[in-house]
Amino acid sequence: QLQLVESGGGLVQPGGSLRLSCAASGFTLVYYAIGWFRQAPGKEREGVSCISSSDGSTYYADSVKGRFTISRDNAKNTVYLQMNSLKPEDTAVYYCAAEGSSCPILFVGSWGQGTQVTVSS
Question: Cis peptide leading into 104, omega within 30 of 0?
């Protein structure tokens, strides 16, 4: 069964950090572009970051540039999203997706459960 599982979310104070993990089972992540997306209450899902499979290029939404870093650990078949200097507006459910080989990811066939990130004092 092909599956992506997000983890690492939680409650953090403004200015804090979290590292999200996207672990794959049933397939090898290295062959896919991996994107992180988020959906805040009452808002549409938006792309946050992406890492391509071809050359490892990374992409970030303007709202997270300089604060978030996406990376791969091919040995662990996992992609991470390091989130620093978190702001209340980063509060959302975060999802990862594996599609194609290049960024940006424009279409996602199915979504996992996601992981909740709450930034609040």
Answer: yes
- 70 token code pair: 């996406």
**What tokens does 113 get?**
């459960």
Residue 104's alpha-carbon distances to 43, 62, 92, in angstroms, are 20, 14, 20
- pLDDT tens string, the chain, 121 residues long: the values are 678 999 999 999 999 999 999 999 888 998 999 999 999 999 999 999 999 998 889 999 999 999 999 999 999 999 999 999 999 999 999 999 999 888 999 888 889 899 999 999 9
SS3 60: strand
Q: How far is CA 32 from CA 22, 45, 67, 102, in A?
A: 13, 21, 24, 8
Asked if 51 and 58 touch (Cβ cutoff 8 Å), the reply is: yes
